[in-house]
Amino acid sequence: MTPDRRIRVGIDVGGTFTDAVAVDAATLALVGQVKVPTSHHHEDGVAHGIVQALAQLLAKVERTAAEVTFLAHGTTQATNALLEGDVAKVGLVGIGGGGGAAFTRRLASFAKLELAPGKRLPLAYAHVADPFDADAARDAVDRVCERGAEVLVATEPFGVDRPEGERAVLDAARPSGLPLAAAHEITSLYGLHKRTRTAVVNAAILPRMLATADLVDAAITKAGVTAPLMVMRCDGGVMSLDEMRRRPLLTILSGPAAGVAGALMQERISEGVFLETGGTSTDISVVRRGKVAVRHATILGRTSYLNALDVRTVGVGGGSMVRVAGNRVVGVGPRSAHIAGLPYACFASLDDLRDATITTVRPMDGDPDDYLVLDAAGGRFAVTMTCAANALGRVPEGDFARCDQDVARAALKPLAAALGTDVAGAARAVLDAGTTQVKAVVDAMIRDYRLDRDTAVLVGGGGGAAAVTPHLAADTGFEGRIARNSEVISPIGVALALVREQVERIVPGATQEQILAVRAEAERAVVAQGAAADGVEVEVTVDPQTSTVRAVATGATELRTQDLAHRADDTERLRAAATSLKAQQERVKMLAGTDAYTVYGTEVRRRFRANRQPVRVVDADGVVRLGVPNARVSTTTVGAAGEALASLVRDSTSYGDGGVRAPAVRLLVGGRIADLSGVLEPDALLALARSELRSRGADEPVVAVVESRA
Q1: What is the DSSP string of 616-678?
Q2: Predicted structure pTM score
């Protein structure tokens, strides 16, 4: 039998280096990796580095372009363009007559948005009262073009409900040859000001991103790659190149999203916190019930309608320098050895560190002069978080940041003498000071997202992971681990990411048909971008307070079946469930199962309240994929599910001053966990359940995990 040589390729374009990885398409194991300098100054820009990395990767893993079944890249280009003010001039045509004109004319104030110190958003504004007056619309377009517009946006109050006016202006602008966008195409949420600002910022980076997309697309096609090129989104998924050409803003903040996508797919996190640690900082994000946490991003100091990973950054990384005052450590960072231009002491040699003495410096003008350095026989060195982690033996064998422990201890010895303690005590003081800042943010995110502390894990990624995650886990009592191949977790995330699309609509009093229509729109969108139709999963949320119906669809570009050597047996799955439940194995019962999942539960007795049954869903690999603090579990078949689910939902629906609240329902069917917990209205919930099961065989088993909201 011919071995399967197909690979998935992920390329992550960073500020300094472009990393590329090849992942086996069947087993999803890492096959190889390369690193090349990011080509900011090449005439083809970052596109040159992407193509160069791909060519070197294929040569290293001895694969041909034809064996690439999936290719995606993540880039900081959009983020950098906004941070540096390197954007195109936007022509904004506001629409409105009578009293409505005042609202759109105020949008001209977007020209005051500051991109970078001394650089404001380049904007030319023109107004048209009647967009269906072709001469008036053309005149408005001509006015912004005469003022140097390179891309054009049309916007109108209530354009989400009545898009004809925005479309009419775009029709009038087509002869200009400029890239065009209607505000309602970028987001379908209400709020003229926020919707238009999101569309304008998207337009500002559009020409530059289009040029890069065309160069990369042409180059990989010339190289013989037939797999469609995908691009990393800021919410942890990927999108087609055509979709990126329409909404390049979705690539902003996609760097941290790639890392958490890698942790989610490779490490199979269901509940926890992902900490991606570089040399200078740590990006902290959340996975809750198997999904990354996203929120509307803040761009240029203002909230937008861009759904991005909720990532919070702390200025502590593997290279963060130690700050001292008197005989104590008073802080770590935010300056790092990289910024100070100093080597890490722990990566020197024992001879280099001979006769080391400590002194304090000011790494950059304006910094305090309390940053500790070593002056030794081999020169000046920085004592860092990585030095302390190695001195304590917290960096595992084979880790990117591993060094000779004797050298690390020698690096900490002068500090220990100054503190009046031993080397281990000095190392702990450094790590305590650094992780205190990280811990505060982790605690806040656990509270914000109400993570289940019984199932939450800390997973570290990035080259500096060992400097933060192991010590933080030991300090907090959470289970902690460093992701495999942590130094390339971001390109792995790009290679493993699923096609993703989110559709949001404001629908007051949404009917079942309207909710299902939004769901179908999201499903069609990911299929149109290359996702295999049979594997698409859609999560629907209905927010009655804001009348927002949201559908998030995800799917792979091919039906991926992992041919892994290991599958957990009954004992291993039971052990995983019991550990997560913090219960003795003999008190844990198997409640239900499918070919892909086993459901376990235990009874928690309470003196003055009803007993509760916490539940864990464990997959075939022995990974806890879902944890519910109190649930009812029922097994049925697809054919009988309609009546069975109706009874379960009826029995578990709560009624009160806040209205009717259907239970949170998850269905285990086939290899999927269909999450219907975002819907509060019972009839809509049951309609969604029917849509999830409609293509299944009548005899196929279905397990319902029902969590009352009472």
Answers
A1: EEEETTS-EEEEESS-EEEEEETTTHHHHHHHHHHHH-EEETTEEEPPEEEEEETTEEEE-TB
A2: 0.81
